[in-house]
Design brief:
Layout: H1 2-5, E1 12-16, H2 22-31, E2 34-39, H3 42-55, E3 61-65, E4 78-81, H4 85-98, E5 104-108, E6 119-122, E7 131-136
Length: 144
């Protein structure tokens, strides 16, 4: 997901439904980006904060105990998702409305319905497919 989203030092990486924070923590460690962990479960946000502190990157990550459908994402330049297909579809209008041109959305395993991805990486096998999808706001499919 990090490789496909290509965050860099000027990016702000959001993980909506972050769980223990591992994706944002790794993105911040590898790339120098800033991060934001968003989860509705305060226990998971507490765990993400502790994991970020252990990794030495807590100062570069914001932690929000919020509903991903209402959290403000307008400063995000990369959004990571590992949600359910129906949640992706419900979230899509918010992403299209709030993300700036050039922002990237990366989704592990699930597409965005009829919105054509910019790029897809297949990691699974024929019997166990596993795709990771990228959408670049304002880009044509295949232009990345």
């Amino acid at each position: 997901m990090i490789q496909l989203g290509r965050p860099g030092p000027r990016d702000v990486v959001y993980d909506l439904g972050c769980g223990d924070g591992r994706v944002v923590i790794e993105a911040v460690k590898r790339t120098g980006a800033r991060g934001v962990c968003v989860d509705i479960d305060p226990k998971l946000i507490r765990m993400a904060r502790e994991n970020a502190a252990r990794a030495g990157v807590a100062g570069r990550i914001g932690f929000r105990t919020e509903d991903l459908f209402v959290t403000d994402i307008r400063d995000a330049t990369v959004v990571m998702l590992f949600l359910w297909p129906e949640v992706n579809l419900r979230l899509l209008p918010k992403l299209l409305k709030e993300l700036p041109p050039g922002a990237r959305i990366v989704s592990n395993m699930h597409d965005m319905g009829n919105l054509a991805p910019t790029r897809v990486i297949s990691l699974g096998t024929k019997n166990d497919p596993h795709d990771v999808f990228l959408w670049s706001m304002g880009a044509s499919p295949g232009s990345d």
